[in-house]
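Journal club prep — side note

Before the paper discussion, L.F. wants everyone to see what a predicted structure for a comparable chain looks like in token form. Sequence:
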Amino acid sequence: MVTPISNPPVTNNPGNSAASRASGQAETRPASAQEQRSQLNAQIVQASLDVSISSGNDGLALLYRSAIESINEQLAPAFGPNAIQNAMGQDNSPEGTAGRILSQTLAFFDGYARQHPNKEPEQLLRDFVDTIRGGFEKGYNEAIGILEGLGVMGEGSHVASEIGKTYALVQQGYDDFLQSRLDALQADDPDPQPAE
């Protein structure tokens, strides 16, 4: 048990040591304030970890937050800070997390296109998807690093499985967006190639 920090043991009273020996009690060295703080911090971290692991999908919330923050960094030069609002407390399933990441990031395409009016449409699409994909992957890797540090990404873990599903759904969403827009560009091409 950790002695509360607010009640540190009295160590500057020379009579304490002699009194405990005289009464036949074993003398124990009181923990220093630094040791007490270290023990308390370790207990707080362990309690936080236990709560995080028991709630199951907190890893996905961390992935979402890290991805959005990194995407915000990528979009900041064109759209200012916090271009995408962090929406914690929503559905943190792989589908819900991926859906929010996709809807909030892909919604910036029109603004991105206005920022780059001289780019060819196909290159514009590819550059946009590369930008937001890069932000997502940076956030994903940061989240994985944190979760590995917490020891919750072991093989077969529920958190690792859910994070992996989310990653795949987001990547597929970016691929689908790119392909559908490229298909639309081809359909709008005024000089289609004749079929052979």
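L.F.'s comment for the group: The chain has seven helices and no strands. Keep this in mind when we get to the figures.
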